[in-house]
Write a structure and sequence with these properties.
Length: 404
Amino acid sequence: MNSPARLTDFASLSSFTASVGSTEEGDNDDDALEKLEDVQIEMLLEEVEKANHILGLETEVFERALKKFEEKEQMSAAFFLKQFSPAGGSAGGDSQTGSASPRTVRKRSKSRGNIGDRFVQRLTIEQKCDLAQKEIARFRTEIKGTNEASGKAISLLKAVMKEARDRALSMKQDDQEFRREIAKHAVNPVTRKVNPDKAAKFWMERLQDLDALNLKLRLKNTALKIRRKRVVQTLRQQEETGDVLMEIDFAQLAIENQLYSQRIEERNQDLIHLKLMTSRVLTVLNAYRQRLNALLSESRRLRADIAVRLELIRRIDNETAIVEDERGEAEKINRHLIYQMENFQVPETSYYVEAKSDIYELKKKLQIWQRKTEITAMALHTRRNVWHRIQNECPPRQEVKTTA
């Protein structure tokens, strides 16, 4: 069904409910119901059921509040009669109050019924709020009791699960010990039979362990019983001495509990506010941490760059000192050359021609003497070869004398 059609159906349902609430004749209601479709009637039935359910809940709340109010009135009337009745007629007064209370209730109910026929008495907003608060308190107590019961059931189930887990673990350990002690070491490898002495010893040790565990649990159980007995005795002593809390104490405790609940609520609100502030502070702190990390990385990079630049400056200073020394030496040479250039005297052309001719003559003589040296070396080389050949061919004289 589309949304416009649904809106028209709701409009027709509202008009129908208005017509049903305004009209008092059955023929008009039948005509209005006959005009509606099945889907509209189902929707109207659902709405009426929801309204009836809500009215039933409200009726239960009001009946519960009325019952408590009537009980308080009866208790106050009985207390008034006990206080102001004669001492001898207490039993009679009680019987009268016991017999008169339902009559008064019936009379009140009749009077209320007669007044209800005249006009409808509605509750004020404050009374409704009080009833709602009482119902909320009742639901809270029921939820608390349910939570306690469920907590006890959960703790019991956890204990059962723990016991089952421990039992399974102990059975697994027993199985491993049985396999290790009996299946491996107590079996004869030839006959494949179990040694009865070792099996009996194993089971005796196991029974002794179980007896020790049983004794330990009994001692623990007796200790718990003694503790429970002491607690019961202290409770009886408190009841006898009058230290048990009365209804007024419970009311005072309820008021104090309400005050403390308000304080706890305020503290919870403050805690929520502080948590929000903490989250904001953490976000700002994380932003500043990221910024600080970036600045630290930038600082490390700049420090490395500064160190490199300082090393470069040191090298430049060294090179500058070396260049200054070289510049001083170059200036000295330059000054010397300038001095030589200033004091330079160009010789005459004839002196240059004579020097060139002398150089030419000296070069020519050098060539001649080099040629003569080469010829002499060649002659010396030939003479040495002839001499070595002669020495090789002719034996020496000393050797000839010795042979003679």
